[in-house]
Amino acid sequence: MKLDTRKSVLLTKSLGGWKPIAAGVTTATKPQQQKQKHVQSIKAIPIPNGQVGKAEVECGEENIEVVFLTEEIFQGRVFVVGHANDTNCVSREVGRKSTSIIVRKDQCGVVTIRSQNPPGLFVNVKIMISFHDNFITKIDRGYEISCFYMEAEKTVTFPISVSPNTLQPLTELAEMPRCRYEVVDPVTQNPVSVVSVGSKLLHKWICDSTAPNLWCMTVHSCFVEDGSGTEFVILNDEGCAIDRYLLDNLEYGPGLLQAQKEAHAFKFADRVVVNFQCSIRLDIRDGECKIPKCPDLSKQRPRISKRSHDEIVRTQRQHKAVDFRQQGFSELDVRATKIDVLDPQIGFGAGNEEPLPSRIGLQGTRLKDCIPVETMILPASLALTTIVTLLMTVTYLLISHSRRSGKLFPGES
User: Residue 376 falls within a domain, yes or no?
Assistant: First the structure.
């Protein structure tokens, strides 16, 4: 059953008790006029503050929030009547010209009443705004708030195939989305295959579907592999980052079945190849898609966890064993194109000033057994010097021999 918030009814406290007020309107009633007989004039100093305008009420799915505006900076408290000593039912938001309280529907004596006509639920709670820390004073106000949650009409249909003898249910599922994982240049949006350490990369997860509104997508269980079986987890099974210096928490969008995150290229020691692989969970959409709630890693030290081969095989088997019709979701493994990550500090790759497509001219090649250029300078210089010396020696000997024979060249007469 889905409940839609339609309206809130507020009541204000006066000398005659709790008095209902028009829905969504908050006003203060004047005390009843009393006959005054021989009443002495009394001078008192009221608290120099008070409420401004109407109280704003937000009837949420799990709680009720009431916001008050005040004439001066608020220094009191807001609490549920009858629960002033319960910390869950008291709010002390001070220091501003406004204050508020959030009350859960299952706490603080909140009363829920079912209504048949119209169908729905009434949720009632009494709130007091007090401008003193401990006592109720003249300027304080009390409200009885009533939120009505109307029951939404929901029609469920089952397509069936009719034959003369039997009625057989026919269930038709939409075509499963096709998902892919890409690592691209954030400027050109072109997939990369050779980059330098520290280059900016954009990780993208995209699922193409004829009915994108039918699905919710969650990227999780990502790992990076060096081409020889060594793997490290960089995104856990809940879809949260482990080391933000390698890959931070993902951003879902801009499309319905899309997620992305910028990161810097990194590599394994003594290895060039870097492979990325992730799992994508596809759920049938029921309301808003839930985005993973991940902790803030801004103050976390770098850490990644190594993933064993047995764990990888076990996880893949679990994904393959999932029956979509029984579980209501599907798991897909997606792998990005292999990337060669070069380190300019040890002679692999060029500087970062050039764009990625022209930075390295060895696209698609495996760089194995490479010899740094710096180590070849001295041997090349010695070889060149030796060759020049030999040529000069041979030339000198030929000239000397010609002079002794009286001929400059062997062919002269």
Answer: no
